[in-house]
Amino acid sequence: MKAIKYISHLAFTSSLILLFGCGQSSSTTQVETEEPVVQTPVEEPPAEPEPVITTASVYAIGDVLLHDSVYNAARVNDGFDFDSSFERVAPILERADVAIANQESMIGGSEIGLSSYPAFNSPFEIGDALQRAGIDLVTTANNHTLDRGVRAIENSINHWNEIGMPYTGSFLSEEDKANIRTLTANEISFSFLAYTYGTNGVIPKQPYHVNYIDLEQMRPEIEKAEQTTDLTVVSLHFGTEYETLPNESQTELTQKLADLGVDIIIGHHPHVLQPPKMLEGVDGNQTFVVYSLGNFLSGQQGDDRNTGGIIGIDVVKTTEDDVSTFELKNPMFYPTFTQKSSEGYYEVVPLKSAKPELFSPVSNHMSQWLPELTIEQ
Ligand SMILES: [Zn+2]
């Protein structure tokens, strides 16, 4: 129904005559004339429905790869304390609507014996600490997924389930793998998938134990994700170790995923930072990719391998006339550095406070293909 408003044209002509005597008497005469009231119906244009806009931020961190130096330094009386490791960066992760971590070493727990390079097994407590630091989902398709066999995979997944942490990339069963993990924030829904280039030559006992990068296997999962939720986030464990720029197979694969409609691609494995970029898919769609987030927490040595960070992107959903469109905005990077604290444990801290001389070169490196990238510190 159209809103019709009546506007009254009402005009008064007033005249006021004041007559003042000379201190003796005064009299006032007021003459008022009123014109007839004219009421004209004015049709307003139909009220434009206001578009509804919501925003959800997605943050991600790189490899959590626990060498023995890291877990031994985190030992406390009855287990391991990794909360201190994330204390300085947890406030950044907590402000994200969705925060993802790549748990590269499986968390098979102490009961099967902890181990370091080349076949990792990590304590459960790292998972608890990531969750307390604000992580909402972990990816577990890595070249180290099969390091300690089926037991480590099952123990890891049982622990993720116990603490209610969604995981993707390595699964307990076909059914578990077919259940694509989703999260919804501010009425924006996300699907999460994760794949690795390989598993150091170890053959999986079951195909669902780890997801490999294989476009034919990935395509149906991506298509299902695209149909199920608003956005698809794919983690890729790929690239050449210690290379600071993506290789051709990385850029080719990410473009193919952009063409399939994938919205956000989080890369890791090179142990060093590779820059983010905005790709355009075949349908003109945007795809935000970061080729490598480096190490977030590890026992590797060297400034480049201890430099990592938190990448962030805002998803803006605009709904008008029951049609929703999505935009990727405000890319952000918060560089971090892993160092040994004065008390001996490993901690992830802002790069600027640990290595101020690296802040500018790292900022330039990360924004080379994305000048609008905001570097925070
Ligand atoms: Zn790796």
UniProtKB/TrEMBL annotation:
Record keywords: Signal
CDD domains, per database record: MPP_CapA
Domain of life: Bacteria
Cleavable signal peptide: 1-25
Domain Capsule synthesis protein CapA stretches: 57-300
Family: Belongs to the CapA family.
PANTHER family: CAPSULE BIOSYNTHESIS PROTEIN CAPA (PTHR33393:SF12), POLYGLUTAMINE SYNTHESIS ACCESSORY PROTEIN RV0574C-RELATED (PTHR33393)
Protein name: CapA family protein
Organism: Exiguobacterium aestuarii
